Amino acid sequence: MTYPEPSSEHTPGCLVIGATGAIGGAVAQHLRNAGTRVTATGRTVPNVAADDPAAYRGVELDVRDPEAIARTVDEAAAWMGGLDALVYCPGVAHVGPLEDLAPGQWDEIFEVNVRGFGLAVAAALPHWRAGKGGVAVAISSQAGQRGQSLISAYSASKAALDGMVRALAVELAPTVRVNAVAPGIVASDMIADDFRRQADRESCSEDEIEARTLRRIPVGRFQTRESIAAVVAMLVTGEAAADITGQTLVVDGGMTA
Questions:
Q1: Is the Cβ–Cβ distance between 46 and 23 less than 8 Å?
Q2: Which residue numbers are catalytic?
Q3: Considering Cα of 137, then 113, then 221, then 188, what sign does the dihedral take?
Q4: Cross-strand bridge partners of residue 180
Q5: pTM for the full model?
Q6: Element (H, E) at 132
Q7: What is the pLDDT of residue 163?
Q8: Sheet architecture: strand order including 134-139
Q9: Please, which residues have CB within 8 angstroms of residue 209's CB and are 6 or more apart in sequence?
Q10: Residue-level pLDDT at 9
Q11: What whole-number distance in Å separates Cα of residue 5 and Cα of residue 100?
């Protein structure tokens, strides 16, 4: 497949990894609507509406494959005429008691949720150092900052991701700003599946699980993928974010307050 060449006038380019998920797709769409040239990846090719086909490219990427990550970063930078920002959205979780987690499940969680981000940033570094620097944003989770049962490996991976963000912000300054956004509970298929699992375990209805969860959120509502995408876009393109690095911005309606 061939793609239209971008125009000679540079438009900021962002690689959004993991754009087939609810949050990743919203991030890609939000950045595209704001005039950013976007390369979006997923386990299958993401589809983001674009009025200008020269401004959007969707590609397959398995973030468990280090060589594929490096190749995708280089190809994205070449197609967009530069790489201004990288947003890393993939995430997997295996829900269940600690004793039921298999070694392979631990490996997958950390490969996808933590290692993939580090490898993507490493692949982007030559482009940022050769240019005017760049921005990296990872999608973390409030689960990395508060204790929750049955997601111990997932929580550990997100806490590790937050730690990597802080370390890389120091290591890569002033060339690269590195931050994370930690959503609370975002209405999505993954959350719906989690509610079903909880209802089955507790022999109650999904509505009861949802109502109980809402009571834990001070603002009284679930977060939206659009609200998360707006915060990510602020970190990527907003002038107000020029001095923000090494931070995990929690967007959870007050759950971790």
A1: no
A2: 154
A3: positive
A4: 138, 248
A5: 0.91
A6: none
A7: 98
A8: 56-60, 37-42, 13-17, 85-88, 134-139, 176-183, 248-251
A9: 195, 198, 199, 202
A10: 61
A11: 50
